[in-house]
Amino acid sequence: MENKEDIKYIYKLVSERIKLFRNYRGLTQEQLALKTTFSRGLIGNIESAKTAQTFSLAVLYAFSKGLDIPLEMFVKEDISDYLKEIGLTEKQ
Question: Collapsing DSSP states into helix, strand and coil, what is residue 30?
């Protein structure tokens, strides 16, 4: 990663994946908030990726545990094999 655009891309990717996996688990933002101890508002801000919302690795780890999804699936570029394995597509 060499510039701010790379960082923005990673945050956007992670934000989209959090929402994708939350929907896969059939959870509302409120239910995920209870599993992670974050507010529903914070989850909404992260998922929307409309603001320059940043978060730490500890926050990402909490999402990984709360959603029971391997941590690397939030940041790995190509997760198509994993998505097929669980019956999802990136666009869901």
Answer: helix
